[in-house]
Amino acid sequence: MSRLLPALAAALALASTAPALADEAADIVRDADRYRRPAESFVWKITITSEEGTKAPSVDGFEVYVKGGGRSFVKFIAPPRSVGRSLLAVGRDLWIYLPDAGKPVRIPFAQRLVGQVANGDIARADYLGDYEAVLAGVETIGGVACHVVELKAKTKEVTYAAIKYWVAKGGRRPLKAEFYAGTGTLLKTGFYESFREVAGRTMATRLTLVDAIRKDRKSVLDYGEITVRDLPEKYFDKNFMKSLD
Q1: CB–CB of 221/192 below 8 Å?
Q2: Pick from 200, 151, 199, 154: which is nearest to 174 by CA?
Q3: Cβ atoms of 73 and 242 closer than 8 Å
Q4: What pLDDT score does 11 carry?
Q5: Which end of the chain is least crowded, N or C, by CB within 10 Å?
Q6: Dihedrals φ, ψ of 242, to 5°?
Q7: What is d(CA 154, CA 67) in angstroms, rounded to the nearest whole number?
């Protein structure tokens, strides 16, 4: 009996600390998410430059309208052949509007948009809402001590099945992420860079995504002009998508 008591005490201690660790992991992800969005309602312009081997880089431009409640509207603004297209995300539902199709069509967040960028990379970026977070240790990235957080998708409707996330211990800035498919395959690695003040908040204004197999395949998302303002409800109605054609 005496031998069982220490083991039982250790088990009880572990059980009591597990919820606290889960809460800490969620807090870290919440703080890191703040570096990736300046407010609850805003508009930003994103330029994506994609490279592959010796091919000439391709450049795509988007205007992204974000409002609380998991809503975002993405307008394609470059190149000219893409103008008229748009994406609409409402919660975990995503639609694309193509002028030739004539009506919005539902598509997955995980589907490739351009280069190494998935639809969900610009249409939804709510890691706290979409994933369960677990602390997995501490590692150093570029001389910066980081929390390592493992994120597991709450549903199949999100962009990635799992994410391994490096967040600086000091300030809790996101620095690096690995994005995984449901099979456990590493798809790509992301690096958060170019932190600067935007609308009174420090933000990562560049995300570089590198293919896991072909390192010469990468896409750089540059977050340019950002305007914090309230947005009308009509922007997040599927009927509004057609009005921009």
Answers
A1: no
A2: 151
A3: no
A4: 45
A5: N
A6: -70, -30
A7: 22
What is the per-residue pLDDT across 187-202, written as a single tens digit (0 to 9) for each?
Answer: 999 999 999 998 788 9
Cα atoms in the Cβ-side hemisphere of radius 13 Å centred on 224: 12
Count of other CB atoms within 10 angstroms of residue 102: 10
Strands 144-153 and 58-67: unpaired
CA distance linking residue 167 with residue 100, whole number of Å: 43
Cβ-based burial of 124 (10 A; exposed 0-12, middle 13-18, buried ≥19):
buried
6 φ/ψ angles, rounded to the nearest 5 degrees: -60, -40
> In this predicted structure, what is the pLDDT of residue 12?
44
pLDDT at 69: 85
Distance CA 95, CA 3 (A): 60
One-letter amino acid of 18:
A
Task: Decide: 127 and 151 in contact? Cβ < 8 Å.
Answer: yes
Please name the residue that has the structure tokens 């748009």. 86
Cα–Cα distance measured from residue 128 to residue 110, given in angstroms and rounded to the nearest whole number? 17
3-state secondary structure of 167: strand
Helix, strand, or coil here: 164?
A: strand
